[in-house]
Design goal:
Elements lengths: L1 E4 L19 H7 L8 H8 L5 H18 L5 H8 E10 L2 E8 L2 E9 L6 H15 L8 E7 L19 E7 L4 E3 H7 L3 H22 L11 E5 L5 E7 L2 E7 L1 E5 L7 E3 L2 E3 L5
Antiparallel strand pairs: 1-5, 2-3, 3-4, 4-6, 5-6, 7-8, 8-11, 9-10, 12-13
């Protein structure tokens, strides 16, 4: 199992990914006690703090550094199966299946996306280079913790055999779990307040415009199944967006969260990045 994490200091040449040095001290202090294993209670406490980018990066560092620290002693597949439990298929699309997993005793922290038909390297690249960096400023993109190569599932309806024994490998992308959410389509079908729906559409539009302004980003598959509505608060709040030197404030009770970056386009270092260039 080859691992790519969101905070890797190395350049992943095939993805063009360069990130901060792995697990800065302030991230380690958030999560670690005396051992190399992240404290489960601290992971649980950070899980709900969705607005803090440092918390998301800290979780990524903690989880993926486990594998790096112990590779000399254990096999990759053994480590994965030691810490990842309770794998359940929760969705399936053109580009693969989505699996919910538990890390140690922490539930609803990760989603795994894997495909035996498509190489998810580009989706991982978009997550690390666009979605995560945009998430520093606005809350409307699902965070990508990292990714890894591992043996594929045999039965997509019962994916408990991930990282088994074999030579063939596929790419898995590890997304944040969007807790208390429904698709935009489901939300519209069950919600009668037009102001809620308008707010979510404006959030999606402004967040894509913001990402386009920074990275020339285009989603190319943005529809009401690829936007999740995250239930946040009974009280209204304001989300700030900056576009073309103008600040916009959107009132809402929910957060529109964009997912599924497999067909997206962006530019990095003056070069176009599409699903055909990885």
């Amino acid at each position: 199992m080859d691992i790519i994490k969101a905070s890797s200091a190395k350049e992943i040449s095939q993805l063009g990914v360069i990130h901060m040095s792995a697990c800065p001290p302030h991230y380690q202090n958030l999560l670690y006690e005396k051992s190399e294993t992240p404290d489960g209670d601290k992971l649980e406490s950070l899980k709900g703090k969705i607005f803090n980018y440092n918390n998301l990066e800290a979780i990524s560092c903690a989880v993926f550094s486990l594998f790096y620290h112990k590779l000399d002693y254990y096999s990759n597949n053994f480590l994965f199966r030691q810490y990842i439990h309770n794998m359940k298929k929760i969705g399936e699309g053109v580009n693969g299946i989505v699996i919910s997993v538990d890390f140690e005793n922490t539930r609803n922290l990760f989603l795994l996306k894997g495909s035996t038909k498509e190489d998810l390297s580009h989706e991982l690249s978009v997550g690390l280079n666009v979605a995560n960096l945009t998430r520093r400023e606005i809350p409307n993109f699902a965070f990508v913790y990292g990714g890894f190569d591992c043996e594929p599932f045999i039965d997509s309806d019962n994916p408990i055999n991930i990282c088994g024994i074999g030579e063939d490998k596929i790419k898995y992308v590890m997304y944040e779990y969007i807790d208390s959410s429904v698709t935009l389509a489901e939300f519209i079908a069950t919600n009668s307040r037009i102001e809620d729906v308008i707010s979510l559409y404006i959030q999606a539009i402004l967040s894509v415009l913001y990402a386009n302004q920074r990275f020339k980003f285009t989603h190319y598959d943005l529809h009401d199944q690829n936007v999740l509505v995250r239930d946040v608060s009974q009280d209204s709040f304001q989300i700030k967006y900056s576009y073309k030197s103008i600040d916009y404030y959107v009132k809402s009770w929910n957060i529109a969260t964009i997912i599924d970056y497999g067909l997206s386009y962006y530019e990095k270092d003056g070069e176009s990045r599409t699903s055909h260039t990885v």
